[in-house]
Specification:
It is a single chain. Helix content is 50%, strand content 6%. The chain contains four helices and two strands; from the N terminus they run βαβααα. The protein has one domain. 6% of the residues are buried. A two-stranded parallel ribbon has the order 1-2.
């Protein structure tokens, strides 16, 4: 990291050492190209539908957590499918172990 600006790594080329060094120095690592645009579109659609269902359930938008979905997998497969995205899970495994 240079002057508080994080280095942005590509999911295809990031090395385990980069992940570990960034987490040790900054507490996080920024990785681009982890999710495909198709996956993001699917997840967004499922999230918007979940927010709509939550609003219908509460019968109002005037509640503390409006716009947030606490149990995302309850509403769509994309949120469960995230756990199968190797590019997303691998950095966690590098830092925490399998």
């Amino acid at each position: 990291m240079l002057y508080g600006i994080p280095t942005i790594y590509d999911a295809e080329t990031i090395q385990s050492a980069d992940i570990i060094n960034n987490v040790n120095e900054s507490g996080f690592v920024v990785i681009k190209n982890v999710l495909s645009s198709e996956f993001i579109t699917k997840a967004k659609n499922e999230l918007f539908e979940a927010i709509h269902k939550e609003t219908e359930y509460h019968r109002t938008t005037d509640y503390k957590d409006h716009g947030m979905v606490m149990i995302c997998p309850m509403y769509g497969g994309a949120f469960i499918d995230l756990l199968d995205v190797e590019k997303l899970i691998n950095p966690f495994n590098v830092v925490m172990g399998d």
